[in-house]
Design a protein that fits this description.
Largest sheet: 8 strands, mixed
Number of domains: 1
Number of helices: 8
CATH class: Alpha Beta
CATH superfamily: Alpha/Beta hydrolase fold, catalytic domain
Radius of gyration: 17 Å
Order of helices and strands: HHEEEHEHEHEHEHEH
Helix content: 25-40%
Distance between the termini: 38 Å
Length: about 300
Amino acid sequence: MLQNVLEAGLRQTMSRFIRPWLHPAVPVPLQRSIVAQAYRSSVPPRGCTFSKVDVGGIPATRTVWGRDKPGVVLYLHGGGYIIGSSTTHRGLTGHLARATGRMVVAPDYRLAPEHPFPAALDDAEAAYEGLLREGHESGAIAVAGDSAGGGLTVALAMRLRDKGRPLPGSLAVMSPWVDLTHQHLYSPEREPVLQPRWIDKAAQLYCGQASRAHPFISPIYGDLEGLPPLLVQVGSEEILLNDAQRLAEAANRQGVQTELEVHNSLWHVFQVHAGQLERASRAITTLASHIRQYQPG
């Protein structure tokens, strides 16, 4: 009963106090500031330690909970490629570090409009290569991300494969944004977080002169064959539901070991409420199990 009340309260909070600010008329710097404050409600578990590091020349936050086991999670934060940071996502990386028992490294990749495509992808690749140079085996690296970071996760794996580089052991994405053309957006009865106008503006700022259908911008239009095992989590109350379903279907069709989880009556990246909302905590536990399954230790 209490969880139902909490879920309803969180949904209302997102709809009333977050969604209105994610609007194309709101200047990007103000969006960044407001969202940074909003994410303070996403609290990491006790016992987490955070440190600023440099990985492959990219500034990042390293998250550890307890005595971490072999392996590392490269976490790519969401925010439409225009907002968000490793700091805003400490709640998520903290719960992920505890659930996996692994160190989590979240790079602060460059954001649009100051740095349009392919800056974010270049930085994600640099961070991954940096982890390899630090001595991490590719199979011991999991790549995970939410929203834009979910799309970036898949794009990174595609680029690494195309270059013949060692691939990570697994991929895990939450509410992935993988089709910036927005030709197949879902229309839920309610959408507490995202507005189509906002993601359309974010896509415009990120893409710059590049096509929105570029495979490294919208991985759904790319070749997914040969990618590592993939877990896709999404809520039923979000306009990106079709993105997640189409990604999972395409990946399965192209031979990628893929699992899709649709969480009924939950919203975009609901996992930020892990530690408060039991369903969010369970989703993180499932995601962590997927990562551990393909890592040593």
